[in-house]
Each structure stands twice: as C-alpha cells, then as structure tokens.
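User: Predict the complex with NAP.
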Amino acid sequence: MISKRPLILDTDIGADRSPEYFAEHLERPVLSLNDADETVFARAPYLLTWRPRPGTFDKFQALEVIFSLGAGVDGLMRTDPPQHIPIVRFVDPDMTQLMADWVCHQCLNHLRDQSQYASWQADRHWGNKQQQPMASEVRVGVMGLGELGSFAARRLAAMGFDVAGWSRSMKQLDGIKTYDQNGLDTFLGRTDMVVGLLPLTAQTQGLYDRSFFSKLNPDGALGGPIFINGGRGKSQVEADIIACLKDGTLKSVSLDVFEEEPLHENSPLWGFDHIYLTPHSSAVSRDSGLVRHLSEQLQRYESGLPLQHLVERDRGY
Ligand SMILES: NC(=O)c1ccc[n+]([C@@H]2O[C@H](COP(=O)([O-])OP(=O)(O)OC[C@H]3O[C@@H](n4cnc5c(N)ncnc54)[C@H](OP(=O)(O)O)[C@@H]3O)[C@@H](O)[C@H]2O)c1
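Assistant: Here is the predicted structure with NAP placed in the model:
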C-alpha cells in the first residue's frame, strides 16, 4: 500500500465520505484535502473532487489526473482546472441504473397520474379512472443520449413507451428514433413527455424555457406536455416553468435539479400539488461505484493505458 501513489480526496464533496474507506478499498494512501500539507501537495498525483473551492488546483505541484466525483463536471469546470491535466468523469453502471430507475419512475408517475391517486388516498376517497392511457400511446423524448440518456431511453422503450432521443451528434439506438441538433424542433413537436439528461454547458444553460415548452406536443395522450429534468437545474428557467404550469403550457413536471440548490423554501414550485420534486437524489455517486471506477482508471493509467471517460475541454462535458 505504501508504495502506491496517493489520492487526495476533496472531503467538501460529502462529509460522510471517508478517506479511510477509499484507502482500504483502493489499497493506496488516500488523504483528505483539508489534512494535506506542503509535502503532500508537492507529490500528490491524483485528486478526487466535484465542486472544488477556488484556488484548489494552485496548491498542487505534481497533479497528473483530476477525477470527478460526479458524472457532471460543470462545477469543476467553473474553477478553471489547469488545461494540461486530464479530467476523468464518473461513469459507473450503478449510477446509470439509478438514473434510469428515476426516469422510469417519473414517467410512470405521469402515465398513471400518481399525484391524483395520492390525493384521493389522503382524502380517503375511492377515486377511480376508467380509461388509462397505454405507454405505447405516449411519446417520450430523451434529451442527451450519453451514458445516462441512452440507457434510460432503452429502458423506457422496453417498458413500451414510444421513445425518441436527441443529442449533439447523431446516434443510432435500436427501436428509438434519433435526432441531432438540427432536428430539435421536429423532436420537440412529436414529444409529449420530455426528459432532460444533458450536461450543463454554455449551450444548455437556460435551454428549457417558455419557448422550448411551447414547442412540445400539446395534444398528447396525457393531456398536455410534461417536463422531467434529471440533468442540471441551470438548464431550466424556473420562472417559465411556474408560469407554464399555471397557464397550461405544461401539464406537469418532475424535477430533481434546480437553478439554486437546495430549492429555496419560498419557491412557488413547492406549492403545486400535481408535480414531483426530488432533492438532486436521482442518481447519487455511491462509494462502492467510485472505488470500482477509480480502481479501473488508476490501474489503466499506471500501466500505461489511456484513461477513459475524459472530459473534452472545448465542449465542456
Ligand atoms: N441529478 C443527478 O443526480 C445526476 C446524476 C448524474 C448525472 N447528472 C447529469 O446528467 C448529465 C448527463 O450525464 P451523462 O453521463 O449521460 O453524460 P454524457 O455521457 O457526457 O452524455 C451527454 C449527452 O448530452 C449530449 N449533449 C451535450 N451537449 C449537447 C448540446 N448542446 N446539444 C445536444 N446534445 C448535447 C451529448 O451529445 P453527444 O452524444 O453528441 O456528445 C450526449 O449525448 C451530467 O452531465 C449531469 O449533469 C445528474
């Protein structure tokens, strides 16, 4: 263990993430960023972080690889990581599965009008709906067909939804209609329920606004367009979401991410009884998954193989 090169863990990323756990499972020295001193910064090659504090990178003199704790690197990119140091995104089957679970759960909430049943149950009312839409009658559009979006799209298709996907570059997914950037309006026009799984970049900031929601299909089987966001909150304009929920441009939403987190207690979003809010918990980075991912990437790097899941600086994800 002593001969292995150390990893610095930015413990600001979660008080319950312990350097001891990572040291034991990675079988190498792991030190908390807060406990590191000049001698550590002089030789530490690896940093695991998510939203580093300004100036974090200036401390390191021998940094070789930055590992992101999360799939999204927008928080990391905001702190100007040195250009020459590769950034490895967190990609792990557990996270992909968790996000697909959340997306499917939300789509089923809307398909089966779960908030209506919850309200009837709270009122001890034997409500009943005689006509249920079929998943095959609902056109879902997944925005972002990367690690998370492509898997969620496949899972939705397996559940019977009529699924399409949109991404920057054209993708091919069996049984799923795909569109690239030029096809955005056509994609939105055929979509009853849109699922956001995009990274936050200059191009996606504020993308989900009134103009965007107005392009969704108003005549779908669920009785109005639905917006589901598990990507990043700053891609959505919450004032527009609230206004669109009030005037019927949107029928309902499921939001896991928000412009400011935690969502402010005064946000009008809390007051809608037919929407679904979760506290940025759709797909957490589990320690066991991080260990699996770090072990593989460190093993590759230290044996001279190329790192995987590298962030492309010019596109910002
Ligand atoms: N809520 C949570 O708990 C949670 C958890 C994990 C991740 N996330 C969010 O989910 C995001 C996606 O993760 P991922 O692992 O799937 O990322 P990824 O593998 O990098 O995929 C990103 C997808 O978005 C597309 N894209 C990016 N910018 C675009 C643009 N301007 N126009 C059209 N398409 C664009 C990409 O297109 P190309 O395929 O053409 O490159 C790609 O298909 C993360 O960045 C993070 O913000 C949230």
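The longest helix spans residues 93-111.
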